[in-house]
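Standup notes
- DV: blocked on the single-chain target, sequence here:
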Amino acid sequence: MRTPRRLAPALLTAGLFVTAAGPARAAEPATPAVVSPEWLAARLGSGDVFVVDARTGLRAYLASHVPGALPLEPSNLRSTEGGVPGAMHPLTTVRMLARRMGVPPGAHVVVLGEESDVDATYVATALRLSGLPKVSVLDGGFKRWTKEGRPVTVERSLVAAPAAGPSTAPDRTAIVRLDEVRKLAGDGRTVLLDVRPADQFAAGRLPGAVNRFWKADLVAEGDGAGSFRPAADVVAEYAALGISKDRPVVVYCNTGHQASEAFYTLRWRLGLPDVRLYAGSWVEWSMTPGTPRETSPAPASPTAKAP
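- DV (later): unblocked, structure below
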């Protein structure tokens, strides 16, 4: 398996978010968090990449998809646990599913949604945390891919024989549970980031949480609509909420699905060292007796609106 060449840097090198870690080894370039359609098209069919179609609903995949792609949507990676809907499967189970799909050891996995959306970031997050060493999201997703006239097909790819396990251990510390959130919420350092729409944030939230709608990370209109905004453009907006490399961050939404976008952006696009995903999110918090909540009569933060 050849190593993909000319990879873009995965981390933003702004001092507020990441610090220089010395020169990177040319033989092992960092895996980019996001790749462009041009990048993928240049490698499609080479055996260097494995494309995962994370769009919700098998019908979309069957209608047309990127050649060689196999479907794996968020619902395949979630279940109800303890009455809480949408819990992510254990990371060992996620890795087993990837292995059954035939993801080769060392392959660069590229995940795409309809746009640069929460379906893509949820699946990419699960795969990265499960121990797959090289995972990226396709910028702009299937919408941008087709808009640029890239090839599509209706032929279903064959699932290869199960591949060997990952080269790294699952990162179980990135998924935070209810009891841990209780402790972190009161430590005076941790930022609780609620990425739901402003009206939902106002109606009920974890005490002390700040709000920034997840879609604020995406281009809202024009030719690039649905693609990620440049990392440099969103740094100041996160910093205005008190989010930096020096403070732990816990990201939540209703069930952990939408939160995956901000988690992915903060951890792998901006390079924050201590970002965690509260998988149970508001649904679990609000249904648990004795958990404190805050409300407000109107949207509390203008940053909750998409740009």
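- Follow-up: The chain has two domains: 34-148, 175-287.
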